[in-house]
Specification:
Layout: H1 3-22, H2 24-27, H3 29-49, H4 53-56, H5 59-69, H6 74-87, H7 106-119, H8 123-142, H9 152-160, H10 166-186, H11 215-223, H12 230-245, H13 249-253, E1 260-261, E2 266-269, E3 278-281, H14 284-296, H15 319-332, H16 339-352, H17 357-364, H18 369-372, H19 380-387
Antiparallel strand pairs: 1-2, 2-3
Helix pairs in contact: 1-3, 5-8, 7-8, 7-10, 8-10, 12-14, 12-16
Length: 392
């Protein structure tokens, strides 16, 4: 990075700060101070990395800085700065006005497509994985390392460059391990399965059993559900589906009219995470909840998916929306729980009905028995009845 580029960026940040301070009453002092701290860190980051003025306001730089710094408001601050400079004609595009493409070499794009289709992950998870792989590809290019020559020390050095919390670093390792397994198992590009060696510091604690709702909490959740508006009716139907069938958020989004029989009270899940279709009996109350939403709230659309957005063009909701609706319903009932708690509660109910672990595995759609085994530890009623002679 030449002195001219540094001077351009310093002048741009100072001009932007003077402008944002002039409208401080509109934006608030807290926003001004927060943006100032972020942009100062950004200046030092650009200088340290030697990023040219031409590459400063790109999504590649934005994501790498956001990952490196850990600033939650980095995206908003840099987009606001770029928007200010674009309107002044000092740069030829605004980060706020354009959408990131983040196109990677074919091997990365092939993996992301494989990751999305084979594991049925949410859109948000795919975006997160892409961002990490963008940073990883940048590291590989900067250090002139080819994928077949990848070694463990390269991975350690890459991860060491992130100043993030332990939990966030764990997430980065998870996404990187998936890519490494793909390179080794599916494509044979690397000679060793490096994913096995990409581990964090030891955690001296036993795995926590799945969390679920107690009977009184289930009653509180359903008693707080309303059916007054179309939004209420959609949430009402989704909560019933997850509680009574233990469905994943992604599975909810894929249900079509061809999958459900209102007369027989059955739901066929054709596209499961394990590629193992199954037909499940649907309780009468859940059938009624879905019918209420379909007849009274669902937008008129030729789309065969049952759960649609309420904004045009009407399209299937995504798994993030499902999780948001459940979280909102939980918060309204004063419960600190997620949609997965409902899924775990379904497994708890199956245990109490006398179903064995193999049946639970099939009904939950797990790929192997190890995934279902943790549910054996949540039969709280039986444990307390045997040991303490109590009931919940």
């Amino acid at each position: 990075m030449v002195d001219k580029d540094i001077r351009l960026l310093m002048e741009a940040i100072l001009d932007y700060e003077r402008w944002i301070k002039s409208v401080e009453e509109e934006r608030g002092r807290r926003s001004y101070l927060r943006y100032t701290r972020i942009l100062i860190d950004f200046l030092f980051y650009v200088i340290h990395r030697g990023i040219s003025w031409k590459e400063t306001f790109t999504f590649k730089t934005l994501y790498s800085f956001q990952t490196y710094s850990g600033h939650k408001g980095a995206s908003s601050a840099l987009k606001s700065l770029s928007d200010y400079l674009y309107k002044q004609g000092r740069i030829d595009h605004s980060l706020r006005a354009s959408r990131p493409k983040n196109h990677l070499p074919d091997i990365y794009e092939d993996y992301l497509l494989y990751y999305k289709q084979s594991l049925q992950v949410s859109k948000g998870t795919c975006i997160q994985s892409r961002r990490i792989l963008v940073c990883f590809h940048e590291y590989m290019e900067n250090h002139a390392v080819k994928l077949p020559d990848l070694k463990l020390e390269h991975l350690d050095a890459f991860l060491a460059g992130f100043r993030v919390a332990r939990s966030t670093r764990k997430t980065y390792r998870h996404h990187l391990r998936g890519f490494l397994k793909y390179l080794y198992i599916e494509r044979g590009i690397i000679k060793k399965d490096l994913a096995w060696f990409l581990v964090g510091p030891p955690m001296f604690a036993q795995p926590k059993p799945p969390k679920f709702l107690r009977p009184e909490e289930v009653k509180r959740l359903f008693s707080n559900l309303k059916i007054e508006t179309p939004f209420d009716m959609r949430t009402y139907a989704i909560v019933h589906l997850i509680y009574s069938l233990g469905l994943r958020s992604a599975e909810i989004t894929k249900i079509t009219f061809d999958d459900i029989s209102f007369r027989k009270g059955e739901l066929t899940l054709k596209d499961r995470k394990t590629d193992n279709p199954i037909t499940l009996p649907v309780p009468e109350q859940t059938i009624k909840a879905i019918a209420l939403y379909v007849t009274k709230a669902r937008p008129r659309s030729k789309n065969r998916h049952i759960f649609l957005t309420f904004q045009t063009p009407f399209r299937p909701i995504d798994s993030g929306t499902v999780r948001y609706l459940i979280a909102k319903a939980m918060k309204k009932a004063e419960l600190n729980a997620t949609s997965h708690w409902l899924r775990h509660t379904y497994a708890q109910n199956l245990l109490e009905m006398g179903r064995d672990i193999y049946e639970i595995k099939e009904m939950l759609g797990h790929k192997n028995i190890q995934s279902a085994r943790p549910y054996l530890h949540i039969h709280t009623k039986l444990i307390r009845k045997v040991i303490f002679n109590e009931t919940l």
